[in-house]
Write a structure and sequence with these properties.
Number of helices: 8
Number of domains: 1
Strand content: under 5%
Order of helices and strands: HHHHHHHH
Distance between the termini: 39 Å
Shape: globular
Structural class: mainly alpha
Largest sheet: none
Number of strands: 0
Length: 195
Amino acid sequence: MKFYQVLLYTHIAAGMVSFIVGFVASISTKGSKRHKQYGKYFAIALGISAIVALILSSLKPNSFLFVIGCFALYLIASGWVRTWKAPLSRKIGLAKVIGIFGVLLAVTMLFLGVLAIQGSGILLLIFGGILLSFAIFDIGREPKRLAIYARHGCRMGGAFIASITAFAVTNLQAYTDAFLPEITWWLVPTIVVRP
């Protein structure tokens, strides 16, 4: 089996695990042991899937999939840092670093979206705009404790939507190409499922 295929199967397997355990985490009582445990599994699985996606999109160059993988990693990191067991000052400092990465990534996505205004360009403009709004909040003043957990939920919810989107694009798009535009399954999870 070729190296690329091994990576592809790893990406798919980790993505499927993230989809399943992410669902369990999302329906579990927030703050419960089960939510924390499955949330951790979700973050690890989606992180592996996204990192492997970056490698795949570098081996067979695809800037769209590369920045989408970076977006997923941003969501996981930004959500995770809010529940990291560390002094508040360290959490806030790391959240700001993640936010700066997010702003740079968002600007890149918006730039690539303008260059390719059709198809994937529209998606990059939409997702780049969403990312920019999240990242600006990361750089800004960190809110009170309750709002910190709200940001955690928003970012991890966004990461779960990314997992749902990957599943929909991979498994449902082929069956609807005849009557739905190509970008539909990229946008439906974002519109229907809200973090």
